[in-house]
Structure formats: structure tokens, C-alpha cells
Amino acid sequence: MLHNKKAGRLAGIMIGLSMALSSVAYAEDDPIRISYIDPLSGPFALAGDGGLKSFQFAARKLNEDGGILGRDIEIVPMDSKQSASEAVQLVQRSADEGINFITQGNGSNVAAAIIEATERNNRRNKDNKMLYLNYAAVDPALTNELCSFYHFRFDAASGIKLEALSNYMKDREDISKIFLVNMDYSHGHFISERMAELVDERLPHAEIVGDVLHPVGKVRDFSPYVSRIQQSGADTVVSGNWGIDLALFVRAIDSAGLDVNVYTYYGGAGGVPAGIGPRGEGILHQVTEWHADVNVDEGLKEYEKWFQEFKEQYPEFDWYYHRIYNQMYMLKAAIEEVGNADDIDAIAKALEGMEFESPTGTVTMRAKDHQILQPMYISVMDTNAKYDAENSGVGFRTVANIPVEQATVETSCNMTRP
């Protein structure tokens, strides 16, 4: 009888061990999941969908090349509805589903809420930590007073973009009267305040002649704003608008026959080129880390193949988010350095300070605040560009290549590390 009990216990142990080993093997075969938390409905759905398609494409390309540690990457779409509170719920849902990585980009107010929610989860659930990879939310506060060990920004912060832009504008004598038009939230407020400071510091030949903030995603007729620009005598407009708010704004400028140059962050993204078309030629400028004709200008033949393949797969979109390429490959490098996709603290430590050879040059994830530093380009809409944007008949032509040292600002981050 004793022998039978021992045999039973041994059989139970072996069955348990077998199940545990099967569970480990199954976990190792599971995809590495990344929650994509951005608007997939409402007025900014087009911008969110473009980002989603870009992440799905990048994941597929990595998977074709063996994935990460032999595991596929899976992008899990989650609709934030451009709501901070909704995004917080989706962070919790991601935690409940065992998803360790979150990415988001549309709306710095949403990004701030995600940072807080990620920090809260990681304090309470030390065995189920999460990493937030920010591909487009640019409020400088996110890597200054709100900086977090579990947040990494792969886009240039707003202050960095204005640094690059002002270094370009300071040598342009045709810029004398500047009008600021921005969305009424943290992103727009920062541009309004910092651009005024930079004009005082660097553009003695120029002045701010107007500064307005408007509701986000609610203005359908921008003609009153355009009238104010016209009355001010401005020759230059600086705007952080994006999505439908930028497309409608530039169309109103064209409809009024206003002769101004518009400098913005997102001229090539989220339905803007399709919404503007040739009316933006010679008017609409953007400051970005990449645009399609950079491939032509700098002979990036391999990356040109990437861009063309994306366009073939998603004809309604362009490969706009070069930063997504950087983000996905830097995440892969960090996880493979650690050898484990679940050790979030170790992956974060591998990411901070990382230097990565991107197609456009060396990019660095600054360790102090987790802000990426990279070369920037200023480009203008041009019908003679090799690649048009969103099948609009107009693409972008480089007017300035801004090196990293002219696209860098200091940080006040005082990060708490585990």
C-alpha cells in the first residue's frame, strides 16, 4: 500500500512537472504582444489607423526575419477614442491580459495619463510590469517633470522640433512676421510659449504678430482664424496642428488666397496631404525625422524598398513614421540583449543610452530622460518630389538637414529608478 502511495505521488509530481514544462514551452512560443492605444474612431481615426498599419507592417517585417528571440510580435489594437480616461482603462486591460508593452502617440494629454497608469501598475504589480513606448506624443513635460523609467519617447519632443526649426528660421530673411495657430491643449500651449521665447532669443529680425488657440477636433471653418492672420500682415505661420485640424486650416489659407508659409510638425501625416493636395505646394513645411524623398536624396536604397513595400500593402497610406522603425528595432535589440521579454526593468536598462544605426544615421536614446536624439529634416510640399504623399500628387522636398547637435535640448528630468 505504501508503495502504491509513493507511486501515486511520483506520478502526480511527474504530471505536474510535465504540465509546467509544457506551460513554459507554450509561453516561449507565444507572441510578444504590444498594445496599440490610439484613436480608431472619431475625428482622429485616420491618424490612428495610419499608425496602426505602420506598426502592423513593422511587426510583420520583423517576424519575417525571425521575430524577437524566435517569437513573433503581435500588435493588439485598442481604441482610445482620443480620451485619457479611456486610455487608462486600456492600460489596465493590457495588464489584465498580460501584455507587457504599450505604444501610443496621439495626444500628449493621453500620454501623460498612460505614464501615470503604467507607473501605478508597476508599483502594485511587480511581477507584471509594463513598458510604455511613445511614438508621437511630444509635450516636453513627458520627459521632464513627468519623466518615468518606464516611458521612452521615440519622436522628437516639441522643444527639440522647435529647436531645429528656429535654427533653420534664424537665417531666413523672408521671415519677419510670425503668427501662431495651435490646438488648445498642452501640446499647443507649449508651442505658443516656447516659440515666442525663441523668436526673442534668435530671430531679432522677426516678431510674433498673433497667437491663437482653438478647440481640438471641433473647428470646421478656419476662415475666422485665417482672417486674423491676413489682418496681422504675417508672412509665416507656425502650427502644431495635426490630422483634420491641420488639413482644414491649410485649405482655408488656400481658399483665402493668403500668401504665407506654414511651418508645422505633421504636414505629411494622418490624411493631411490627401486633404490638402496641390494647394499646399510651396506653402506647407514640416519638421520630421524623415520623409520619403530622403531615400532619394541620401541614397537609402534598402529603406526605399521598405517604404515601397508598405505602400503596396496599404495604398491609402504612406510610410510616414520612421520613428516606428527605430522603436521596433531598438526594442528588439534591448530584449535580445536581456534574453527575456518579461524582465521589463532589464529591458528598460538596455534601452536607455542605446545607440542605434538607423537608415538616417545614428540615433541615441538619452539615458537621463529616455528621449531619443536624432537628425531632423525640414521639407516643403512640392509637385516635383519623387514620391507623392497619400496619392495627392504632391510630395515633400528637403530644404534643410538639421544635425543632431542642432536638434537637442537639455532636460530637467530627475528620474526615479527601481
From TrEMBL:
Domain Leucine-binding protein: 31-382
InterPro entries referenced in this protein's UniProt entry, alphabetically: BCAA_transport, Leu-bd, Peripla_BP_I
Secretion signal span: 1-27
Key words, A-Z: Signal
Protein name: Branched-chain amino acid ABC transporter substrate-binding protein
Record-stated family: Belongs to the leucine-binding protein family.
Keyword Glycoprotein: no
Protein species of origin: Marinobacter adhaerens
Pfam families: Peripla_BP_6 (PF13458)
Gene3D superfamilies to which the protein is assigned, alphabetical: 3.40.50.2300
Lineage: superkingdom: Bacteria
